[in-house]
Amino acid sequence: MLETRGLTADYGQFRALFGVDITVAAGECVAIIGANGAGKSTLMRSITGVIGNAPGMVLHRDEPIGALSSAEIMKRGIAMVPEGRRLFPSLTVEENLLVGGQARKVQGPWSLDAVHDLFPILGERRKSPGTALSGGQQQMVAIGRALMSNPELLLCDEISLGLAPVVIRDIYAALPRIRQGGAAIVLVEQDIGKALAVADRVYCMMEGRVTLAARAAEVTREDIHSAYFGVAA
Amino acid sequence: MYRLTTRTRAGTVTAIIVPLFLVAALALPAVASRGVIQDLFFILTMLTLAQIWNLLAGYGGLVSVGQQAFVGIGAYAMFAGVILLGWNPVLAIPLGALAALVLAVPTAFFAFRLQGAYFAIGTWVIAEVTRLLVAQWKALGGGTGTSLPREATSSILGTDAVRALFGVREAAARDIMAYWLALVLVVAVTGGIYWLLRSRLGLALAAVRDNVDAAQSVGVDTARLRWAVFLIAAAATGLTGALIFLQTARISPSAAFAVTDWTANVIFIVVIGGIGTIEGPILGVLVFFALRSALADYGSWYLMTLGLIAVVVMLFAPKGLWGLIASRKGLHLFPVRRRLTGPKIEGGI
Amino acid sequence: MIWLDTLVQGILLGGLYALFAAGLSLVFGIMRLVNLAHGDLIILAAYLVLMGVTLLGLSPWIAALIAMPVMFGLGWLLQAAVLNRVLGKDILPPLLVTFGLSVALQNGLLEAFSADSRRIPVGALEGASLDLGLVTVGIMPLMTFASAIVTIIALNALFYHTALGRAFRATSDDAVTAGLMGIEPKRIFAIATGIAMVVVTLAALYLGMRANFDPSIGPARLIYAFEAVIIGGLGSLWGTLAGGIIIGVAQTFGAALNPEWQILAGHIAFLAVMLLRPRGLFPRAVD
Predict the structure, then answer these.
(1) Where does the record place the ABC transporter domain (chain A) (predicted)?
(2) What is the pLDDT of residue B4?
């Protein structure tokens, strides 16, 4: 459903991605792991059009989308939970959720009620400013906000970053229900264990390149170690 | 082996040609007609104002649309020196700088409280307030204005010598004096800005322009820097205003505080020529004068065209005409950028 | 009683200034853009309404209703074709572009309509007044003030209770993330400027019906609008109304003392507020 072909990305003079090829099939859960600075977030920003690309480098349903704007890509059903959550401070929790669904109106399992059912705290705090919540609750808002558009692909950029283990557990507990809704998921993670536990397939990135592509069930510790650090264990 | 330099080949050529050019300009009144001298006076004073505004906005990031406050107060201070104190007009010109400096302190105090773009309108408000207050100054003609008294204009320092030297009438001699003063002023202001930009202050300005936070973190006192640039620009603008109205010998609040003449035109000169360079205003003032001459008979079409040209330049060539030339030819007549020179570094990092 | 009358006139005049300021405030709030041509756009709208009245024989109200979508389109186009291209971290390009537009517009109007003072004819309403016992107030100033209040209520409703308003606030907070939500920031900016121009048309209608106007008075309207916005505190429309009232009252009292002091008194009130409350009377917690 989603494919990148030789994707490159630059920040001015600095090249951050050197020909990245990944694919995501419908309904699949794919983990992208790698150390800080491996290019994971840049990959997400390229796919969602925050960074412009050559059109043919990103394909969605075999159509080139690399040159589309973020908004156009989102309307095709690719929703993003951005790194650092990025809630809108002047919107309430409920408005943050609503703003996620207002540009793309398609039938699907997700609505305000369904998100409140998934994360009950968001229903209780609906009138609070989004940024008045705890980090974990803000992460729930960010995930709920992306779900409100009933995406066919949900990109999650570092959803466990900076959160307490018990909070991470709650958030990961929601992922199976999101998959039941039919959305494919891409998890960008530094926490390898968490990612492998829920993913079907895994890509490992290092210095702007994919160094490993494997089925999550088949991958070994040694594979990961060498792909992650560039040296054998 | 490596050293930091601002020297370029074109810059060296400039250093040779400029003095020759100046000598020629000084001697010009011997052959040029009075009309030419008046045109040149206009060009030189507009260029001075443009260089100053460029220092403010292009290098200092202070987009003021209230510079007419300093032109006006400078001119009025000179008139006050002549009419109320009985000074010789030429000696009263420095009063213009002083008055502008005094006005700049409260102006900066208020305008610096306004964030970013609102700073621009803030300066405009101060200019309006100053104009309205000066219009209440009955001793200098109130709202209708006044002229320099006959005995003052006829006794301007140096006019007798000029009359004797070139054998011209008194009015023409006065224009020549004003022209020479404008020449001195434009050289002093341009040279002063050039020197400023190559000094530590210039380095700090460049740092602030690139990144305010980073500049502050390496110890640039941005607040003091903004004050310094604003006050210097105000004093120089006041001086120019005094000189401009010495030549016209007549003043009124609407003429001395005209936003179109002293700010809009000046901004257009800088934008069209190229903001953030010393060459830009020079090129800009020539284009401006050519347009003005060509469209002089078309009334307000002329200002409309000028405004639209400035818009188009900002949209399609934000570095102005000089930016287009400099990027194609790599030409820098007044180099202020520091470049590392020395043997080429082999290999990469 | 004369002072009470002056006070009431000043408050009502503040309504007009709030109308001038609402569009400026809206655009700044959403895209941090200060449009230096705002005052000249008010004058342009006034001439549009005037043309509807004199050329088409319409009533001023109908003429304004027709001018509103025209001005919306113009604002939309201005933003989409020009201003969106220069918006960015550097505040210099949008300032210089709108300043160039201001001068071009002012001189274009001068060429098209001459420097003669004009007024939008309103017939019987012009001199009509209402006796409130202690003071007598003109119908026209009263309508201006009421329109300012209705406009502010409508804009606040738009901002806080519609999907478009959500998109406005989200884009203002974080345009990149708004893009990830399927919102095109540039489209949002164009709509916002369009709406600002509708408010400008309303302001122009009252400006033209209450007093004479000519192409040169735009910049002064920009300055009044700006003062009202700053006094109120950025981002609060009710604050802007309060700012407009302060300027209006200062001006009428100044004029009562000496007609030459009217404008000056307004500016001095602004400077006084700046001195005492640099962030305005009702500053927002976050900028």
Answers:
(1) 2-232
(2) 63
